[in-house]
Design a protein that fits this description.
heterodimer; A: 336 residues; mainly alpha; MetI-like fold; 2 domains; two-stranded antiparallel ribbon; 2 strands; 1% strand; globular; B: 677 residues; Rossmann fold; 4 domains; eight-stranded mixed beta sheet; 24 helices
């Protein structure tokens, strides 16, 4: 098992390196040159040309990629922080350190200052949502799949479909209408700052509720299908005809096998919760990672896009690794 | 007092097409310690019956009439908790497929221990001790290590032993067995049947055994019932049933099986016409009437037929039972009596080897095979799963390529020529019929389509009218109505589908036909008809048939020559008559002794093989069979490949034991039949 994890981690590293190159290529080759994007739309052409030269943007792609990796790993100083450029880009960490993602032109701050704060906020939202999604979807799915075709199954399945088919923004607006406008129990926006008169906890309730409701319906459908399938398996019949109590049949024999298929789906939700919940973040003005990525893309903030995409890629590959390892733990046949 | 008493039982299923009675008018008594066998084909209701006894019928099934009394309690009215206490404790079940009956994500130990614990009999430590003891009782080597393993780490035979151990853990009074050996190799099957007999003697458990295989039932059961279309049609002691079967269906079943020692020229199989009716589709009067040779309109379909007493302990559900013994079944014309002369060699393999790479290891599927087939003869290849017989068939058919050696078919070496590199003429000349007729027909094309396609591909017919005429001729050849060409595969029965597969294979006038277990997936009562058909066409067209099978009774019946394979090598080869009498290769001897004989009067010597067939990843150095051979001489068998010994010019045996010694071995089948009459 240790060897497997080690091998998969190395594969993950290789994937990240290849992906980082692709990310670099896409960002640097998107319309408009990097110098222009860095200086903004109102800079003079001379300034752009000067920066273009300073940054050696005429060099071959691979050379520039190696240079970018050099800055990222701290082997090289960030050329943008050179005072001679007059850009006034300052990083308290210095010019040259490991993990230097460069300078965000949108937020006028080092990428590291922006990125980790936003990621932390999103991680909080995602963590809370995930902590609701897992038990809720499992309970709904298992109860429904336990007796496929029963009244309970049909009611819970209908509920799941309804939950997952209301779009996030509609659900957000609906919840706001009820809990903010009508009842006044909760704040309508969640900027996560202290001076709104609402506690941070109260600001988290609605975004978490939207994510949990929307996603649990979907995951519950997956769990239900898998559970219903497992309940038809001969080994469940064996367990029943051994004279085991129904509770034990479900918990000991069916559940673990029913978890194998939805486990991967469940972990993929982490991925989505980190980088795919832009709509919910926008509805509640939540200062999250997805929204930051959207804003950076619209603005053309190359360094921030590159950094954020790399982080998203890392989350994606890490959850993949986690799900593969978990899969092996759940299914003895996958272990060899 | 009876242990199990079933009175007038009716089990119904609710389907989208209405209510279907899977079991009707069923009564039965099983005494404590007795072994009762119920024979029936797929869809006859036997599995429904035992699940009804267990109170497990799913959401759409229910007992609508009658009662099931077990140890004096009526299970039909038992509550959930009462049933739970009986299941697994007083009454346990062994399933058809041990691979799926065990939970893949729990260890054997966890699955065993929970049985006594669920019935409040033991603490975890006691339960573990008990589980280990029962694993030893079912002869699993090293029970402690088995306890820690997962099901996928055990072989099929070992899994079935675990399932039997699981059933016996709480020492039940009644053991229900649902085809427990179907899907296992003959040698493993024989060992499992021995085990059941041994455990019954030891624990005094009553057995209720259901199977489609009369031979298996004959070995285990004292009393036998025959079920057809949801009803019990005959019940008697094993001896009485085999000596004087009363119901036309029972007689038909027995006549459609090859008898020991019979072959295609002396005693042709008598097929039962028609097909098994779908569950609940048989008429309420006599369900067998449409297939019965002795049916009489007005008499047989006048009213519901009750079980009639033909002898003190022999009941039969047939109004004409008394008139029947005088009416022998109509025998089909025997095949041409002259033994097929030895013609030109059509296929000859020399040192044919197929090695697969599994990681860094080598899996040896075929190892220097040398064998030949002559024109117009039937060559049977027998052996357990893992013997490499199917790999050979694939190489021959061009679905796989050999690693080395030669395989000359009609003058061409095809060992490394897969089907896409074969000329159309050669493809037409070498055709194959597969085990599962379902999988070989495209479900969205009418069955005439593959026939027409083969005719066009092989250049037999080009324009539409010729193709139509030829398709009609092919259907006529396999005795199917011409109208069936427009039917979809799902509208056909298994036997009909296999006939289509045979027609397709013969579309290109093949020189050589490979049939890989062509009837093992079919119902017993339709097997004989398909076999007879295949043999008739084969003989008329003088096609060479390579018949792959594990059923030695069938091989004895239809083969001209036999090759016995083990772990990729030929153990013995020769004409069929020579092979079934000494001298045998010890492996052949073991196979013959393991084959279930559908006749309790035939006594076979009991030679049981130890352990399982070794992994082809790790084959023994000397004789492949040395690790399991009951007649092993010593070190020489382990170290040195055995020499080729010639019993006669065309009968060869690969064994260290001298031919004279092998000749002195007593025959497996004691001919008790001959002395009894």
């Amino acid at each position: 098992m240790t060897r497997y994890i080690l091998r998969r981690s190395l594969e993950m590293l290789a994937t990240l390196i290849v992906a980082s190159f692709l990310v670099f290529v896409v960002c640097e080759f998107s319309p408009g040159n990097v110098a222009r994007k860095t200086l903004g739309a109102f800079a003079l052409q001379e300034q752009v040309d000067l920066l273009y030269k300073k940054l050696h943007l005429n060099d071959p792609l691979l050379v520039r990629y190696v240079r970018w990796v050099g800055v990222l790993t701290g082997l090289q100083a960030d050329p943008l922080q050179d005072p001679a450029l007059g850009l006034d880009f300052k990083d308290p960490r210095g010019k040259q350190y490991f993990g230097n993602f460069g300078y965000s032109t949108l937020f006028k701050a080092p990428v590291n200052d922006v990125l980790w704060d936003r990621l932390g906020k999103t991680a909080l939202l995602a963590g809370l949502a995930f902590a609701v999604i897992v038990p809720l979807s499992l309970i709904l799915g298992v109860l429904a799949g336990m007796r496929a075709g029963s009244v309970l199954d049909r009611s819970l399945s209908t509920l799941s479909i309804v939950m997952t088919s209301i779009p996030e923004f509609a659900l957000g607006v609906l919840l706001v209408a009820v809990f903010v406008v009508a009842l006044g129990w909760l704040p309508g926006t969640s900027p996560m700052v202290g001076n709104t008169g609402w506690s941070t906890a109260s600001q988290l309730v609605l975004p978490v509720a939207v994510l949990a409701i929307y996603d649990s319906g979907y995951v519950a459908r997956m769990v239900r299908t898998s559970m219903a399938e497992v309940m038809q398996k001969p080994y469940v019949r064996t367990a029943v005809l051994k004279g085991l109590p129904r509770r034990q049949v479900i918990l000991r024999h069916a559940l673990r096998n029913a978890m194998i298929a939805p486990f991967t789906v469940l972990l993929l939700q982490i991925n989505w919760l980190i980088s795919g919940v832009v709509v919910t973040e926008l509805v509640f003005a939540y200062p999250g990672f997805g929204r930051m990525l959207l804003e950076a893309s619209l603005f053309g903030d190359v360094s921030l896009i590159e950094a954020a995409t790399l982080v998203a890629l890392f989350v994606a590959t890490a959850t993949q690794l986690l799900s593969d390892v978990g899969y092996r733990l759940l299914d003895p046949q996958a272990r060899r | 007092m009876s242990l199990l008493e079933i009175r007038d039982l009716r089990v119904e299923y609710t389907t989208s097409r209405g209510t279907v009675a899977a079991v009707q008018d069923f009564s039965l008594d099983i005494a404590p310690g007795e072994s009762f066998g119920l024979v029936g084909e797929s869809g006859c209701g036997k599995s429904t019956l035992i699940l009804a006894i267990m109170g497990y019928m799913g959401r759409n099934g229910a007992v609508t009439k009658g009662e099931i009394l077990f140890e004096g309690r009526n299970l039909v009215r038992a509550g959930r908790e009462e049933l739970r206490r009986i299941r697994g404790a007083r009454m346990a079940i062994v399933y058809q497929e041990p691979a799926t009956a065990l939970n893949p994500s729990m260890t054997i130990g966890q699955q065993l221990i929970e049985v006594p614990m669920a019935h409040g009999e033991a603490t975890a430590a006691d339960a573990r001790l008990r589980a280990v003891r029962v694993l030893a009782d079912v002869h699993l080597p090293d029970p402690d290590s088995v306890m820690r393993r997962y099901p996928h780490q055990l072989s099929g035979g070992q899994k079935q032993r675990v399932v039997i151990a699981m059933a016996l853990l709480a020492n039940p009074a009644l053991l229900l067995l649902d085809e427990p050996t179907t899907g296992l190799d003959v040698t493993v099957e024989a060992a499992v049947l021995d085990l059941l007999n041994e455990l019954r003697a030891k624990y005094g458990t009553a057995l209720f055994y259901i199977s489609h295989n009369l031979g298996v039932i004959a070995q285990v059961c004292e009393r036998i019932g025959v079920m057809y279309a949801g009803k019990l049609v005959e019940e008697a002691s094993a001896e009485a049933l085999f000596a004087l079967p009363r119901h036309p269906y029972t007689r038909g079943l027995l006549a459609s099986l090859p008898r020991p020692g019979a072959d295609k020229r002396t005693a042709p199989l008598v097929p039962i016409p028609g097909v098994v009716p779908a569950a609940g589709r048989a008429p309420p009067t006599c369900g067998f009437l449409s297939r019965c040779a002795h049916g009489e309109r007005g008499k047989c379909d006048a009213s519901v037929v009750p079980l009639l007493r033909a002898a003190p302990a022999h009941v039969v559900r047939c109004v004409r039972w008394a008139e029947l013994p005088a009416m022998p079944p109509a025998a089909p014309p025997a095949l041409a009596n002259a033994p097929t002369d030895v013609g030109a060699t059509v296929m000859e393999a020399h040192d044919l080897t197929r090695v697969f790479s599994v990681g860094r290891r080598k899996l040896i599927a075929n190892d220097h095979l040398t064998l030949a087939a002559q024109r117009g003869r039937v060559l049977a290849i027998v052996g357990e799963s893992g013997s490499g017989k199917s790999t050979f068939a694939k190489v021959l058919a061009g679905l796989d390529a050999a690693s080395s050696g030669s395989l000359v078919v009609l003058g061409e070496d095809v060992a490394r020529r897969p089907v896409r590199r074969r000329a159309a003429k050669l493809v037409a000349a070498v055709q194959m019929v597969f085990q599962q007729p379902e999988g070989t027909l495209n479900p969205s094309h009418p069955v005439g389509w593959p026939l027409a396609r083969s005719l066009r591909k092989f250049g037999i017919a080009r324009d539409r009218r010729t193709v139509d005429a030829k398709v009609a001729a092919l259907l006529e050849m396999v005795r199917l109505p011409a109208s069936l060409r427009h039917a979809l595969p799902r509208q056909l029965s298994g036997g009909q589908k296999q006939r289509i597969a045979i027609a397709r294979a013969f579309a290109g006038n093949p020189e050589l036909l490979i049939a890989d277990e062509p009837v093992s997936a079919l119902d017993v009562s339709v097997r004989a008809a398909v076999i007879n058909l295949l043999l008739r066409i084969q003989q008329e067209s003088r096609t060479t048939l390579v018949f792959i099978s594990h059923d030695l009774g069938l091989v004895r019946y239809l083969a001209d020559d036999v090759v016995v394979m083990y772990l990729g090598q030929v153990m013995e080869a020769g004409p069929v008559a020579a092979l079934f009498d000494p001298p045998y290769h010890p492996y052949t001897e073991a196979l013959l002794s393991a084959a279930p004989v559908p006749d309790p009067t035939v006594k076979t010597t009991r030679i049981r093989l130890e352990g399982e067939i070794p992994s082809p990843l790790n084959v023994p150095q000397g004789c492949r069979f040395a690790t399991r051979c009951p007649r092993k001489l010593g070190r020489v068998c382990d170290d040195t490949p055995p020499p080729l010994r010639e019993a006669t010019a065309d009968h060869i045996i690969h064994c260290h034991i001298p031919i004279e010694d092998l000749r002195a071995v007593p025959p497996v089948f004691a001919r008790a039949v001959a002395t009894a009459h």
